[in-house]
Design brief:
This protein is α+β, with helices and mostly antiparallel strands. Helix content is 63%, strand content 12%. It has a domain of 91 residues: Arc Repressor Mutant, subunit A (Orthogonal Bundle), CATH 1.10.10.
């Protein structure tokens, strides 16, 4: 490896370290802003677009908005509408423990399907069918798959004309979440660079 390549690799590693440090700080502190946006429950529901706009107005970086919302969901401050997928509902403090227990139950149901089948990969139709066979309602299956993927219990990817889910071992889930964030950041930076190059090419 040449000195130039070594320097470039070191720069990338430093960028990743600093970016992830900032990201961890954001998801630890910024979800509390969600509470202020919902006025601690006086606002009961808000569209996805409006919530994201208000987070940016309060200083949350555009790249961090989705992660801040995810973390607010994990803390059970809010929940997405599982029918429309376009709005968030406030969760009152007295219901948060119950909601966390429900998430644990549903995510365990997803994990148990993989363990029962002795596999780490399943097509979406197979996974949905097996979850329904355990007694979950259609709505519970939607929620189970959404939360399990959000919390890195599973990951999904396109396979032909369908989706395939992969079980993530418990000890790898924290790192999986951080790798997702870093990959997204790198992709966003490449898009920005291409846009800037395009603008320079037309003399803007």
């Amino acid at each position: 490896m040449t000195k130039r390549r070594k320097k470039a690799k070191l720069t990338e590693e430093l960028n990743e370290k600093e970016t992830m440090k900032r990201w961890r700080a954001a998801i630890r502190s910024d979800p509390s802003i969600v509470g202020s946006i919902f006025k601690d429950g006086r606002v009961k529901v808000m569209t996805d677009r409006e919530l994201k706009r208000k987070l940016e107005e309060k200083g949350v970086a555009a790249d961090d908005v989705d992660d801040v919302i995810d973390e607010a969901e994990r803390r059970k401050l809010i929940t997405i509408d599982y029918e429309t997928w376009s709005s968030y509902h406030w969760i009152s403090p007295e219901k948060r423990k119950e909601e966390k227990q429900e998430t644990q139950r549903l995510e365990k149901a997803v994990e148990d399907i993989f363990l029962k089948r002795c596999t780490d990969r399943l097509l979406e139709d197979e996974l949905r069918k097996d979850l329904i066979s355990t007694g979950l309602s259609a709505r519970e299956v939607k929620r189970a798959l959404y939360e399990a993927e959000r919390d890195c219990v599973v990951t999904s990817s396109a396979l032909g004309g369908c989706w395939e889910y992969r079980l993530v071992p418990p000890e790898e889930r924290k790192r999986e979440l951080e790798e997702r964030r870093w990959s997204l950041w790198v992709l966003q930076e490449k898009i920005r660079e291409k846009m800037e190059m395009g603008l320079e090419g037309v003399g803007v």
